[in-house]
Amino acid sequence: MRIAAVDIYTVDLLLAEPFRHASSGLIDRLAEVVVRVETSDGAVGWGEVRGNAHYVTGETPGRIVALLRELLVPRLLTSTADTPAGHARVMAAALPGASSARAVLDIAIHDAAARALGLPLRALLGGPAGATKVHVHGTIPFCPPEIAAERARTYLEQGILTMKVRLGLPDFADDLARLAAVAEAVAGTDTVIATDVNQGWTPKEALAKARRLEVDRLGFALAWLEQPVPAGATEALKALRESVALPVYADESCGTPQDLLRLIEARAVDGVHLKLCKAGGIGQLHAMTAIAEAAGLPYLIGQMDEGMLATAAALAVASATNPLSCELWGFQRVAAQPFSGIAMIDGDMDLPAAPGLGIAVDETGLMHVARLEAVRA
Ligand SMILES: [Mg+2]
Question: pTM of the entire structure?
C-alpha cells in the first residue's frame, strides 16, 4: 500500500457559538486542513486536523499546508514504505515535531487501510467491528454563572454525566461562582465535575487556588484539575500533585509518547489528556494509551474542537482502548459541514459499521489547494 497521490484541501467551519479559554483567544471557526490519500492498490482515505489550534500545537493552517506540500507528501510519494506504521516512521524521520501535519496524513492513511480491508478503523485497532457507541463528557466555557447552570442542565437532559468547567479568569471569584452554579444545577444527580485551567495559572497561583478547590473548601469533590500551569512546568505539576488532595492531569504538557514518559518518570501527574493532533498520528496515540495504562494513569481521549473526520479518528482509538472519558466536540457546534456519518445521541457518539472512519465527504464543500502524485515507472 504505497502512496500514489495526495490532494490537500482547507475548509473553515464556522462555530454557531464562538469560544474562549485561558490560552485560546477567541475562536469563531475551526480552520481545518483536509487531505485525501490514494494508495497504489486503489484505496482512498480521508484525514482532517484543526489548523488554528496554534496555542497547543504551534501550527497554523498555512504552515501545515506548506509542510505537507514541501516535505511530507513528497517524502511519502517517493518512499518504499507500504504500511500505515511504515508511512508514520517515514514522516517522523522527515519531520520531528509538526504533529498536526503528520497526524492529518496518518489519519487518511489509516482510513484507506481500513477501507481496503472492509473494516471500521476501530476494528483494525482492536475495537468492535459492529455499530457501537462512545460516551463523551461536556465542557462549560467562560460564561456568567447562570449561563453555566443552563449549559449544565442541557447536558443533563442529553444524558451527559461528566462536565468539565473551564477555569482561569483573572478574578478567581468568577471561576468559583461558575463552578458553584454548575454544582447547584446538577445537585442530586450522579454528575461528575472536573476542571481545566488551560495553563492559566503560575505555579504559585496554582498552589493557592487548587487548595480552594479541595473537597473540604469547595463542598464537593472534583474529578480532576487539568493543566493548571504552563506546558513546560513539570516541576510545578509535581509539586501541586504532592500538595493538594486533587487529581492533577496534564494536557498541553503531554503531547508525545516522550512527553508522557517524562511525566511518568517525574511522577508529576495523576492522569493525562491525549489527542491525535499532539501525538502526531493514530499509532502514536494508541501507543500512548498503552504507556499510560502500564503506568497506572487514567487517560482522557480528546481533540481540539474539530470536524467529523478528526473526531471519527479519535473515536476509533477511544473505542479500541479504555479512556476514563472522552472530550470530542467540534462538529456538533458548527452550522454547516461537508462531512456526514456520525451523530451524537443522548451523550453518546453513535458510530456506524461502515469501513474506515465511516465518514462521507462532500468535496464541493472543501477548497482544493493542491494535488501531488507519485511518478513511478
Ligand atoms: Mg485541556
Answer: 0.95
